[in-house]
Amino acid sequence: MSAPRPRSRIQQKNRELILDAALEVFSLHGFRGATLDQIAEGAGLSKPNLLYYFPSKEEVHTALLTGLLDTWLDPLRAMNPSGDPLQEILGYVRRKLDLARDFPRESRLFANEILQGAPRMRAAIEGDLRRLVEEKAVVLTRWMETGRIARVDPVHLIFSIWALTQHYADFDVQVRAVLGPGHDPFAEAGRFIETVFTRLLDPIHENLTDIATEKPLLLR
Prior knowledge:
The protein has helices at 9-33, 36-43, 47-53, 57-77, 85-102, 104-115, 122-145, 154-170, 172-179, 185-201. By secondary structure, the protein is an all-alpha fold.
């Protein structure tokens, strides 16, 4: 079988226009609410022209999600098992918050897909995503067992990082409405979230509570 012919510059540009327009439409309306007509209009192309590149709405959506997964996994991949544990975790927090700030449409696209039961991403999240989380959970557990960070459930630690960082993209309107003008949500969030995880993971204070085994809080 012969290799596929490389795309021309015009073809590549049109694909990028379509995917960017689709990202806007899907992030606003979700998969069910989005239409090919909306995407074509956003891309400045006719619907037949769009269908030349992507034969269905599902094909456009899948192309977006496929590219998005690597973007979402890269910050966790960058956690270095040989680095300082707290700094590696805080670095991951910062990278996830940067993603929320710089790629809010992508974050909402991912959230919409998950809320619908991940019909087009289930294989990926049960495969690549799960394997990466399991791999990093082993690293986190090793740091905990050697006393370098406090003992907590490593997988739920990762979940909490996702929740605290992606909130600022998925609920941007709410965040800005509550804070009011004159605030930088991401700068303020960065300082707050780093404080939360620094205190949570400080092994010096671990005897106050054992979250991993759900022992009651011991007050001094």
